Amino acid sequence: MKWCTGQLVPRTVQSLAVLAKIERRYRLPEGYFKSKMPNRGGATHGRGLEGIPAHERRQLAWHLPDDFLSRSRTEQDEILTWVRRVIITGSTDYRHYQAEAMKQKYAVRFTAFLGRKRKPVTANDNLDVHLDDLDAELESAVVDAPAALDQEMNELLRFKTATLTAFGFQRNGVWNEETASQKVEHLSLMFGSLASDPRSTVKGCGVPLDSLCFAMLVFPAVWDWYLQWRERRRGFYTKWEVDMLSVVLGMTRADTGWIRQTPALANRLRPIHGLISEQDIQVARKDWDAACETFHKHARHRIKEIQRVARIHRDPFEPILPVLEADSPVGEYRKITEEIVRLMPDERRYPRAAAEAVRSFLLLRLGIHLGLRQRNLRELLVCPRGRMPTSERHLEDRKRGELRWSDREQGWEVLIPAVAFKNSTSSFFGSKPFRLVLPDLAGLYDMIDAYLGRHRARLIGDAADPGTYFVKSVKRTSADASYNQNTFYEAWRLTIQRYGIYNPYTGRGVIRGLLPHGPHNVRDILATHILKQTGSYEQASYAIQDTPDMVAKHYGRFLPQDKAAIAAKILNRVWEAA
After folding, report:
1. Does residue 291 form part of some domain?
2. 144: which strand partners?
């Protein structure tokens, strides 16, 4: 009776089994009743996953077929294995390696950026473990940096991030907050490997914590140990080793290097068995310039050697290969937004679920239209219709962009000052802000208006409004509606898991072979799409606010057959005309 009145809907395995029998009895199409439900995308309850933790059961429930319990034990195990391997974790070799590497805990924790959370780096094979992505168990195993080492790190950061260079120092280049945070992570892992016990699974060097200092980085023997340790763990050299050497290469450069201009660092040097002798220390203290120059030459030589044999461990294109291989990558990715609309819950019955679905839709649509990096999209502010937009000067101070209604263009526009971008000094910007009017296509404006008018407030609930366009679903255990790097990455990844990856057991999802991924991959999709259509690296760079060189190196997957196809299209017109 409650089904008829709409007070309840059938959501359990047993209820759906009853409906299936009714369909067969009255010769109705299979799934007839389920298609009438107000929340077709919701997970079915009561699948009986005994022995599986509650949090994993919630993850799995969405991806299991309604007849899961009626299938044989062999089929159930097959389905669970597939869902865990493909949807929950992703099945790339790198993810398997990363999962194993995460079990080996090593890092030295600095006070700089201690409260900051970062998502796993998505560039080519950057980290084994990411200090700010550590869970509570891992954090408990991370050692705090000694006070002297921590002070040295803070002095380095002041040198590289200060607006004006301190008197008596010279500097070449400045780190922004994102770059500085990343360098802290990288150096924390290097010092962590040196300090780890050789008898542990990390097989570190066993350097006493009190002996760790920045001055030890000018000794070639220290670097050779570290480089070979990295190679033993992975089985080959990668771009990571080149990047690390390049960072310290800059610190020891004549005239502008921080280590080179700070000879007092040598006062903290201590002998380290097999790496630094007492005689090495005396020589370095006597002529610090010469010690830095020796390392400088050594590092340049090592960089060339490693570049010759370095391999890419993580292929950033692997999770989205089915999209990139399509004739229209953006058109293929757009199918995910259409699947979200197809499975959209009834807002009257499921207001919170509908709000989350609309947010998922807008995450992908704005990502596709704007091509922004994760931080710029996550920190995008919002100004509803009828309010005065934030001034460009104020946005520059906050280093954030804003979505606002343009009366002149009669459309939603995004304005982001150049200083808010990671590559703010790039020739793409020329010190001018990024401005784009979103197109009113495929229901985008209706979704934006509905999100700002109703759904966004439902997600925030009683929490304070962070002012950003995208907000989290606030639960009772949390009063913060703002996203950080981890939670925003997970929101995007969850959207792909639910609506993007084709599931042969449930029929949900629209792209076969797709794997879980984060928002950064949209930049690869946009660049590759334009390359396939135009063959122009310059035009592709316009879509992601970057340079043609960066597109060629990191973003565009432009294969020989794609280039040949563009040329053939032009040449074939001759024969078509005949």
Report:
1. yes
2. 109
Alpha-carbon span 381 to 377, nearest angstrom: 9
Q: What is the pLDDT of residues 470-521, one digit of tens each?
A: 999 988 766 789 999 889 999 999 999 999 999 999 999 999 999 999 999 9
Beta strands in 85-236 (DSSP E): 108-109, 143-144
545 phi-psi bin (left φ>0, alpha ψ -120 to 50, beta other):
left
- CA separation (Å) from 133 to 118, 202, 238, 429? 6, 18, 22, 32
Q: What angle do CA 171, 393, 430 make, to 5 degrees?
A: 55
444 vs 341: CA distance, rounded Å? 11
Count the Cβ atoms, other than its own, within 10 Å of residue 54. 8
Q: Is the pTM of this model over 0.85?
A: no
Phi/psi class of residue 528: alpha, beta or left (left: φ > 0; alpha: ψ in -120 to 50)? alpha
Q: 148 and 63: one domain?
A: no
What CA–CA distance (Å, rounded) separates 517 from 495? 10
Same structural domain, 130 and 256: yes
Question: Is 388 a domain residue?
Answer: yes
- Alpha-carbon 342 to chain mean position: 27
CATH number for the domain spanning 408: value is 1.10.443
Confidence bin at 101 (pLDDT 50/70/90) = low
73 touches 289 (CB < 8 A): no
Closest residue by Cα to residue 228 from 204, 247, 211: 204
Instruction: Please answer whether residues 142 and 109 qualify as being in contact, where contact means their C-beta atoms are separated by less than 8 angstroms.
Output: yes
